[in-house]
Design a protein that fits this description.
The chain is an alpha/beta fold. The protein has helices spanning about 10-20, 35-50, 65-80, 85-95, 115-120, 125-135, 145-160, 175-180, 205-215, 230-235, 245-255, 260-275, and strands at about 25-30, 50-55, 110-115, 140, 160-165, 185-190, 220-225, 240-245.
Length: about 280
């Protein structure tokens, strides 16, 4: 079994915690509007100081994504995006070397958000092996319940992937602790019951729940769903180890997807840069 202490995601959070810093985790739909743009955004985010990115693997029937991310998945699938093509893009990103004064060197910690149906279709162990070979560090399978996800845990660890699990506001307290025991890399705390989407404010009870959870586990806890601006990122990171921003980023990609790639990357990158300033 591979030692997850050498896992890039685990090491990144350990380094941030030692430095007293928090993580901003942007979410990107892999292949939206195309894989070349996704790769360019990864490099831009890294150059701005992002350390971890979540990549959504497009799926035809996402279970918790709001209309913004659902539409991006549909667009990516219509463009012919597949796991194999995403793996090749990540592999190419990992081979990036320092160029022209840019700090991006392909060293972001990357987490795949993928439906179990995709993993199952490819074969669980082959899919995990291919993900690691491409350069992924963690995996989130949102449609796999605790009982089955815990059975998958030895396979992910053996492959060298951190098995990241989700906790919802409706998850009973004892089950939250059980999920925390089986989650590696970090724990994904869903701030609201429902689907993803931009919101002006998050429920204070979710903030308090994360503060409580952190008294029971050393595993980093990150909050996602509804985190959409610098103020909310800062508020979330008062108690959590990081903030995950998805729909707000995808929304800006959608607004700029007909513009030249460099212009899109600059616009989205500047937004991510503003979010980063809130936790520096």
């Amino acid at each position: 079994m591979n030692n997850l202490r050498d896992n890039r995601l685990v090491k990144t959070f350990a380094g941030l915690r030692t430095a007293g810093k928090k993580a901003l985790m942007p979410f990107l739909t892999a292949g939206y509007p195309d894989l070349e743009t996704t790769a360019a955004l990864l490099k831009d985010f890294e150059a701005r100081g992002v350390r971890i990115v979540e990549l959504g693997i497009p799926f035809s029937d996402p279970i918790a994504d709001g209309p913004t991310i659902q539409a991006s998945y549909t667009d990516a699938l219509d463009g012919g995006v597949s796991s194999e093509k995403i793996f090749e893009m990540v592999r190419s990103y990992r081979s990036t070397s320092l160029t022209a004064g840019r700090s991006g060197d392909g060293s972001l910690a990357l987490v795949a958000m993928v439906s179990y149906s995709i993993v199952f279709k490819h074969g669980v162990e082959p899919y995990l092996a291919d993900a690691v070979d491409a350069g992924f560090d963690g995996i989130i399978i949102p449609d796999l319940p605790l009982e089955e996800a815990s059975e998958l845990e030895p396979l992910t660890s053996s492959a060298g992937l951190a098995n990241v699990m989700l906790i919802a506001p409706t998850t009973p307290p004892e089950r939250r602790l059980e999920i925390a025991r089986h989650s590696h890399g970090f724990i994904y705390y869903i701030s609201i019951a429902g689907i993803t989407g931009e919101r002006a404010r998050l429920p204070e009870e979710s903030i308090r729940a994360v503060a409580e959870l952190r008294t029971h586990t050393d595993t980093p806890v990150c909050i996602g769903f509804g985190v959409s601006n610098a103020e909310t990122v800062a508020h979330v990171c008062e108690v959590a180890d990081g903030a995950i921003v998805g729909s707000a980023i995808i929304h800006r990609i959608t607004d700029a997807k007909d513009a030249p790639r460099d212009e899109l990357v600059k616009k989205v990158g500047e937004f991510v840069g503003e979010l980063l300033k809130s936790i520096i």
